[in-house]
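ok here's Two-component system-Response regulator, seq below lol
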Amino acid sequence: MEREVRILIVEDDMIIAANISLQLGNLGYEVTGIVTRGEEAILHVRENPPDILLLDINLKGSLNGIETAKAIQTFKDIPVIFLTANTDEATFASAKKTRPKAFITKPFNKLNLQRTVELVADQIWVQEHPVRHSFLDLEVLGDRIFIRYNGKMEKVLLDDILYMEADRNYCTVVTENGNFVLSCTLKTMQERLPNSSFMRVHRSYVVNLSKLDVIADDHLEINRKAIPLSKANRDFLFKRIQAI
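and the structure came out like this:
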């Protein structure tokens, strides 16, 4: 199970901050704190560093959001998402120098917040789970597969596979411990694995049925990753789930 992404909210409007905190909590993120001043944010990051900084550009006090981001970056590299009511070019150019991961323009809605934070959280996950490339064959044996990597066959338990994603003539196998990019199509990979556990839910995705967290009409979720569910596969999936 993946650990929760930890987020520090730096916002001097407490009504907005409380609303953001509630929404992030409902989405499964851990809010490490809400602070209203840049100086407090710097101290908080030193003592309890989060994974993401959700940082208002127009903070009151001696440090605005951009200056706060610069000060934090002198001692800690943390992805920044700026909150701003200003859309002028000068503010954007100044904030851009701190290399933020994203901007959220006020007023924003729940979906905008959810998608922006999810994109940044996904980048963090990728950094923590480096992709390993394999351009040779693989062997399937009972409850595991062996992928040739760095001159040796590396074991991957089928139960550790979350899902597989197509990328033209390649296939990315996403596991709980890392990713493998294989030089075979998703169709070929699907044919090699037991259909009792794995199912194609979209032209670009095969999922491990035992890893499903959410099933909606048009998508699935595994470890907070949204996976599209095609209409052609939806009814069959529901039948499979009922049978299980």
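fwiw Residues 52 and 149 are 33 Å apart (CA to CA). kinda neat tbh
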